[in-house]
Design a protein that fits this description.
This protein is α/β, with parallel strands linked by helices and 288 residues long. The chain has a single domain (3-160, 187-217, 257-273), classed as Rossmann fold. Helix content is 39%, strand content 18%. It has nine helices and twelve strands. The chain has helices at 13-22, 43-52, 74-95, 127-141, 162-172, 189-201, 222-233, 262-268, 275-286, and strands spanning 3-8, 28-33, 57-60, 98-104, 145-151, 154-155, 175-179, 183-184, 187-188, 209-213, 220-221, 238-242. A six-stranded parallel β-sheet has the order 2-1-3-4-5-10, with helices on both faces. Helix 5 crosses helix 7.
């Protein structure tokens, strides 16, 4: 059966990876939008778009992700991460569309000593994390059907991200200092995109909103992740491990944000790649 899909934030990392996977699929009609074609912060624009373009699935890949800037730009962070999600959720409920919304590890305080499950209570420590949690709550309250997928440390061959920044700095400098006391799992946006499309093919929940955690397999700190990037890319920049307190930022980062992936693997039979394998693929593409 032919499906019609709307991707918001289509020019971002996840949006472009979704487009790559959907390109050439005859069983899908895909609308790819960004702020220049659909401002999801404007409720009327969302209403008019879905009235003119009926869709079966909405994938919201749009987000305000400038974590430190959000501490001062509070209103805009909430407009994009909460109000826009509410607009999409209400429209999805009205038009009986299945909504996939992407959230973040920043909804947690990072004080856990074990991987976070979907049942753990969120406690965001930043404006960014609070605004993303507010978006989750808006979606649940809307009455729509869909899934929320929390992810962490997203990177890809597209846009601005940690891997591309480290490749650039590593080629320019002899040494770099990187924090070693923040633990989590990098996530290749292409792997997340595959998981999202798997969910869209056969949603498990018939009513309400289901919550999942998704990241690449494995556990690492930013310092070790940087060393792996340089090793795979053949960059000879020295990496020094430092404490988070030695690299102060406006927004507080979770010190530990590893996810328990059992639920999404069980429900959808996903074989999630180990972080290093996906990193090799992307560095190969970026270094071509």
């Amino acid at each position: 059966m032919r499906r019609t899909i709307l991707i918001t934030g289509a020019n971002g990392q996840l949006g472009r990876c979704l487009q790559d996977l959907l390109r050439g699929q005859d069983d899908c009609q895909v609308y790819c939008t960004d702020i220049d074609t659909l401002d999801i912060c404007q409720e009327e624009q969302v209403k008019r778009f879905l009235e003119a373009h009926p869709v079966d699935i909405i994938i919201n890949a749009a987000a305000y992700t400038a974590v430190d800037k959000a501490e001062d730009d509070v209103e805009m962070a909430y407009r994009i991460n909460r109000d826009a999600v509410a607009n999409l959720s209400q429209a999805a409920a009205k038009h009986h569309a299945f909504l996939v919304h992407v959230s973040t590890d920043y909804v947690f305080d990072g004080l856990s000593n074990r991987p976070y499950t979907e049942l753990d209570t969120p406690r965001p420590m930043s404006v960014y994390g609070s605004s993303k949690l507010a978006g989750e709550e808006a979606m649940r309250e809307s009455g729509c059907q869909g899934v929320i997928i929390r992810t962490s440390w997203l990177y890809s061959e597209y846009g601005h991200n940690f891997v591309k920044t480290m490749l650039k700095l590593g080629a320019e400098r002899e040494t770099l200092s990187v924090v070693y006391d923040q633990i989590g799992a990098p996530t290749y946006a292409g792997d997340l995109a595959k998981a999202i499309l798997t969910i869209c093919q056969e949603p498990k929940n018939q009513k309400g909103v289901e919550l999942y955690h998704f990241a690449n397999e494995g556990c690492i700190c930013w310092f070790e992740f940087t060393k792996a990037i340089f090793e795979i890319a053949g960059i000879r920049c020295a990496v020094k491990a430092i404490l988070t307190s030695e690299y102060p930022t406006k927004a507080q980062r979770p010190a530990y944000s590893l996810f328990n992936l059992n639920k999404i693997k069980k429900d959808y039979g996903l074989d999630i790649p180990y972080w290093r394998e996906s990193l090799k693929v992307i560095i190969s593409k970026l270094c071509e």
